[in-house]
Amino acid sequence: MKLLLVSVLLCAVMVLTPAAFLTDKVGSSGAGDLIPTGISYQVRMLSRCPRGWTRFRRRCFVYIPRAMSWAHAERNCLSMGAHLASVHRSSEYRLIQKLTRPHGFRTTWIGGTNASGKHVWLWSDGSRFHYTHWCPGEPNNGLGNQHCLQINYSGSKCWDDVQCDSHRPSICARKISRHRG
C-alpha cells in the first residue's frame, strides 16, 4: 500500500512540475549550475558514484544548491536517476550535514513527506521511515499545510515539517548496485 501511495505521489510530482533540471558538473565548480535536460524516470543503479557525488555505504549523495519547491527538487533528483535523500541512521544524517556545511547549513529538502495523511511520513524513494531527527514539537503541521521535510531547522539543525511550495536547496541520493558493471 505504501509503495502504491509513493508511486501516486511521484506521478503527481511529474505531472504538476513543468520542467526538470540536471546538474552540470555537480560539486566540481561549487556553483551547481543547472541546465534543462530530457528526463528518464527509470532509476538505474550504478556500480560507483558519478563525479561530484559522495559515496556512503551503498548510496551516492549530492547537494543541489538551487532553491526550488519540494516537488521540483524531487523531479530534479529523478532526472539524475535519484530521489530526494532518505535517512535511515544517524551516520547518514551526519554525512548529509557534512554536505550542507559548506553552504552554511541552509534549511534543505530531503525526501520525507506526509502528503498521504496527517501522521504518516513516507520517503519519496519508498523506503521505510523509521529513523527521525525531529526538532522538539515537530512535526506539527503548522497551519494545516506542512507536508514536506526540511533539515537544518533552528540552531539545533533538526528536522521540521514545512509547506512543500517553499524554496530550498536539496540533497539527492541514488543506490549503488552490488554488481560491477
UniProtKB/TrEMBL annotation:
<dbReference type="InterPro" id="IPR016186">
    <property type="entry name" value="C-type_lectin-like/link_sf"/>
</dbReference>
<keyword id="KW-1015">Disulfide bond</keyword>
<protein>
    <recommendedName>
        <fullName>C-type lectin domain-containing protein</fullName>
    </recommendedName>
</protein>
<feature type="domain" description="C-type lectin">
    <location>
        <begin position="56"/>
        <end position="173"/>
    </location>
</feature>
<dbReference type="InterPro" id="IPR016187">
    <property type="entry name" value="CTDL_fold"/>
</dbReference>
<dbReference type="Pfam" id="PF00059">
    <property type="entry name" value="Lectin_C"/>
</dbReference>
<dbReference type="InterPro" id="IPR001304">
    <property type="entry name" value="C-type_lectin-like"/>
</dbReference>
<dbReference type="InterPro" id="IPR018378">
    <property type="entry name" value="C-type_lectin_CS"/>
</dbReference>
<keyword id="KW-0732">Signal</keyword>
<feature type="signal peptide">
    <location>
        <begin position="1"/>
        <end position="19"/>
    </location>
</feature>
<dbReference type="InterPro" id="IPR050111">
    <property type="entry name" value="C-type_lectin/snaclec_domain"/>
</dbReference>
<dbReference type="InterPro" id="IPR002353">
    <property type="entry name" value="AntifreezeII"/>
</dbReference>
